[in-house]
Amino acid sequence: MSNEVTNILISGVGGQGILLASEVLSEVLMLAGFDVKKNEIHGMSQRGGSVVSHIRYGKKVYSSIIPEGQADMLLGFELLETYRYLPLVRKGGSVLANNLQVFPAPVTLGKESYPVDIPAKIKAAFPDTKLVDGLQLASDAGNQRTVNVVLLGALSKNIDIDDSFWQQTLQKMVPAKYLEENLKAFSLGRNL
């Protein structure tokens, strides 16, 4: 990620903790001394609709929206939403995706079918794609709701920022009663 501004797109569905993940990531980047701009788009997010967060950071960032074909990395919380946002990733960019399917309403109601072979399609477009079993790792950490922090841990390996900033931010933003399992989830993701 050598551009002057680095672009990270996070996509998924409502209820997956994308907004907390983007808050944590933005805070970590600010602590590391970067100018950070963030923009979130919620499409019926409380009903399992699409949620996307644009995070741009660098020495100086002027806009919060990642232009099409300019994302350096796509962090996908759900496979179909990861696939949907591939056009925003630059050629040579990378994709880190949670290997999870969340069926949208038309699929659940039998009106449409969930596309097949999404991981293969993503890897065909971006050979550097990494799939993560976030739900299993979150379960290993003691709470399935920590998938977002598992994915942040996996993402953290691709951003050259001191681990202490991540720890400090999680301690600040995660309620104390959930902190231990979130720190464990982050560690499991980071050590993949």
Automatic annotation (TrEMBL):
Gene3D superfamilies linked: Pyruvate-ferredoxin oxidoreductase, PFOR, domain III (3.40.920.10)
Matches recorded under InterPro entries: IorB_Oxidoreductase, Pyrv/ketoisovalerate_OxRed_cat, Pyrv_flavodox_OxRed_cen
Protein name: Indolepyruvate oxidoreductase subunit beta
Pfam family, one: POR
PANTHER family named among the record's database cross-references: INDOLEPYRUVATE OXIDOREDUCTASE SUBUNIT IORB
GO molecular function, one term: oxidoreductase activity, acting on the aldehyde or oxo group of donors
Keywords: Oxidoreductase, Pyruvate
Residues annotated as domain Pyruvate/ketoisovalerate oxidoreductase catalytic: 14-190
Source organism, top-level taxon: Bacteria
